[in-house]
Amino acid sequence: MTMKPLTILTGINRTSEPSSGSLILVNDLYRAMPYTHTIYLGRRPVDHEWKTAFDHLIPLSTTKRPQGPGFDDYVDELTQEVGALIEQHRPDAIHAQNVGFALSLALSRTAGTIPMISIGHGPEVMAAERNATEHAAMLEVAAASAAIVTPTSVLANHIDRLTGRRFTDRIAVIPWGIRLADAQARDQPSARTSGPLSLVHAGRLDDNKSTITAIEALALTDQPHCLTVIGKGPLCEYLEQRVTELGFGDRVHFERCLPRAELWSRLPSFDAFVFTTRGLEAFGLVLIEAQAHGLPVVYSALPGVKAILGNAGTAYTPGDPRSLAAALDEMGRDFNLRKALASASLRNARRYDIATTGRQLRELTLRVTSK
User: Domain 180-349 has what CATH class?
Assistant: First the structure.
């Protein structure tokens, strides 16, 4: 059976490089979507590898301006630019990344008769919960969407509540995934039966990701575990200062963001992955990346995270260093636990192939376009 070709216009209003989970996901997703021509709207500079993932990448020229007195004028200018691009390319469908934010607003105002699917990523949901302007943007984008895609039922429930349950029947849950074929799995933990662990934490260093929980947990453990923190963000300097205050310079090491291939090559060298987010988490792709490399995961028990991980992790109370310290010591003492979690991690990761995500999103897009 011949699959029908599909042209999709999408984009994220940020520099076109793999600098966050959302950007990495989108890069993988449209590369994995079969029989699809993708037009991507982004910002300069454009990473070379990033550009090759899309059939056509168009850098936006409207000067980006944050929320403030000039925001409405900015959205109007962006809407004019985006409207001209839609008229020029006439895609079969539009995928608005984020149910809200400026680019999604521009797309919703210019889609016309072209069906639009909005895709929830999390940051816009947190913004809508604390800001009236962002909330209004979410309502407008949701109303213009033929479907609203989220990776978990937890995020779906947040969006459903924030939009007054007006669009419940439009919400579809499609789990995210990674390029499993590229992961080099380690199917056994290190040979040490017990002792201090070599831990890794990777992600944006901000308040919600709560890297400080992992650092302060080390002061409460019975064993001198070591932690490598990979990432960047507004709290980097503060975290480094806190490590100095605790006298942990020999136990906590910071590394800036690594290209994914390099990060993945490093993951098997660690004993466990530490996930410390304490608030809303859309999905947590890095959890699946760690699992796909055979790492046991110690994670904050947020709604929905256990469903993503299955039984392949050890939970602790979000934001509680003492609870995390106890979980780390238990894992350090129990080789059989680490071995069982490593095997469970590999089994669970197999559920999240980006090819499956791409196929499901393409099928939904075909349904809303009636192609």
Answer: alpha beta
